[in-house]
Design goal:
Oligomer: single chain
Structural class: mainly alpha
Number of strands: 0
Radius of gyration: 22 Å
Strand content: under 5%
Length: 368
């Protein structure tokens, strides 16, 4: 019997962790001489108080959904894929190669091909660390961190020496053709006669991210492969005894994880910049770790956590614009959320477990 109900583990523990993180952040804001209530009001208004704010919040959340799902799939196989940043970087390269290869007649064709390109390049970049982990026992955290830096250096070289248009000083590719331009949500809502999200980058990739959440849920809880991934993650000896190959499951889980991380580049590279630039990922690969931790590696939890971090990113930008609070404070808040939902998870979980056990005993004695 579980010490506390499933709903408490999935909802209450992360909620209390976030409240504690925001409470400590309020103390930090007070310490630098600012009003935390006013700061929260600015963040809420800037991120959620208008269609413009929602547009940017949803744009950031789209990135975090992909990278959060990538980390979550690896977590289910008891693998800590910390290389989402590098896999998303190479995913951007896949998007650029596909988009620049043809003069696409329509964005739907370009999007389908770019999705495949991003997934293949992201999975390929995860393949070597996956193989080293599965066959050689190399630590997945070390190898994926190394591949983040290798991926950034490789992209830097390609943009400066290979893919940069002749005569351009900017380390970036040429603009993607018009047929590869993704419609924004403003374009789509305008076609329906109720324009929303004007001047924001949120685009059709949001629906791909939502579909990815559903697909990951189906994969993990409704397929044979998902069952084997979960069984392997819970107990490798038991999985081996049941005939599950550790090498195959490690490879499958990390390749799927890399493909999901690579797909993040559709939103940033194809949806916003419309060309491949340096540092297009902007740390989303690392934020995905916090999103997966906070979402308990469940796609619905990842969706909610991605929305929270989207709110923090957009609200933080507004806070830096309208107050003297430095932008770096949002990094502090993010770090506190990660700290409480990850490293200090038991600080919240253990008192709640004791509380629910006490309530259960009290209820049992009352019935007797």
């Amino acid at each position: 019997m579980q010490a506390m109900p499933k709903w408490a583990d999935v909802v209450l523990v992360p909620l209390i962790s976030v409240v504690l993180a925001f409470a400590i952040s309020a103390l930090v804001i007070l310490a630098i001489g600012e009003n935390p209530v006013e700061a929260l009001k600015i963040m809420l208004t800037g991120a959620l108080g208008s269609a413009y704010g929602w547009g940017y919040t949803l744009y950031y959340a789209t990135n975090f959904m992909f990278t959060g799902l990538a980390v979550a799939v690896a977590f289910h196989a008891s693998q800590f894929n910390i290389g989402g940043e590098g896999q998303a970087t190479l995913g951007g390269l896949g998007v650029a190669v596909v988009c620049l290869a043809f003069d696409w007649p329509h964005w739907t064709l370009a999007l389908a091909a770019a999705t495949v390109g991003a997934a293949v390049f992201g999975a390929s970049w995860a393949a070597v660390p996956a193989y080293l982990q599965a066959k050689r026992g190399s630590h997945i955290v070390i190898t994926t961190i190394m591949f983040n830096f290798i991926g950034a250096s490789l992209l830097n070289y390609l943009l400066v020496n290979v893919m940069r248009p002749v005569g351009s000083m900017d380390p970036a590719t040429a603009r993607f053709p018009a047929g590869a331009k993704l419609p924004t949500l403003f374009d789509m809502t305008s076609a329906l006669g109720m324009p929303l999200f004007k001047s924001t980058p949120v685009n059709v990739t949001l629906f791909i991210a939502l579909a990815a959440c559903v697909a990951v849920w189906l994969l993990i809880w409704r397929t044979r492969l998902g069952y084997m991934i979960r069984a392997f993650g819970r107990s490798e000896p038991a999985a081996v005894y049941a005939g599950i190959s550790p090498v195959k499951i490690t490879m499958y889980a990390l390749l799927i994880s890399g493909a999901l991380a690579g797909m993040m580049a559709i939103n940033a590279t194809m949806g916003e910049q419309k060309r491949l630039i340096l540092n297009a990922v902007e740390g989303a690969g690392f934020i995905g770790i916090a999103v997966a931790l906070m979402g308990r590696s469940h796609p619905f939890g990842v969706l909610l956590a991605a929305l929270l971090f989207g709110f923090l990113f957009q609200g933080g930008a507004e806070l830096a614009l309208w107050t003297t609070i430095p932008r770096e404070l949002i990094t502090v808040i993010q770090a506190l959320v990660i700290l409480f939902t990850g490293a200090l998870d038991n600080m919240v979980r253990m008192p709640l477990e004791r509380l629910f056990l006490a309530l259960r005993r009290t209820d049992g004695e009352a019935r007797r």
